[in-house]
Amino acid sequence: MAPCLNRYALCIDEVVTGLWDTTPKKEGFFDSKSYPKGAIGGVTGSASCVPGTNIENCKKCLSTAKTSLDECKSVTSGSFSNDVCTMWYGQTLK
Predict the structure, then answer these.
(1) How far apart are CA 47 and CA 79, in angstroms?
(2) Which of 1, 32, 39, 86 has its CA at a distance of 20 to 30 angstroms from the CA of residue 46?
(3) 32, 52 Cβ separation under 8 angstroms
(4) What residues contact residue 62 under an 8 Å CB cut-off, 6+ apart?
């Protein structure tokens, strides 16, 4: 089982899966022109690629982002960003 977000007892896998499930897809993967957000159990997140990024490069980048975020170190938020893609999650403000 993946490490969990301490305070919210929410596994990072659930956050990442939620992002993937709520993100519009193109050719079976993320639409590089969309900037969607999803909310799962009090945690909000976003996954996107720079407009114009081809699907394969978007997929590779977001897979790297997921791997990075899977290494959750008992924090309530996390992010990964480079010149191709961004993925983040954090506590939903109430």
Answers:
(1) 10
(2) 1
(3) yes
(4) 30, 47, 49, 85, 87
For position 16, what pLDDT does the model report? Answer: 59
Structural domains of the chain sorted by starting position, each given as residue range(s) with its CATH number in brackets: 4-91 (3.30.430)
For 4-49, strand residue ranges (E) read 4-5, 10-11, 25-26, 29-30, 37-40, 43-49
pTM of the model: 0.56
Where are the strands (E) in 1-94, listed by range? 4-5, 10-11, 25-26, 29-30, 37-40, 43-49, 78-81, 85-91
Task: Identify the residue whose tokens are 């976003």.
Answer: 46
Residue 51 DSSP symbol? T
Tokens of 30: 């993320």
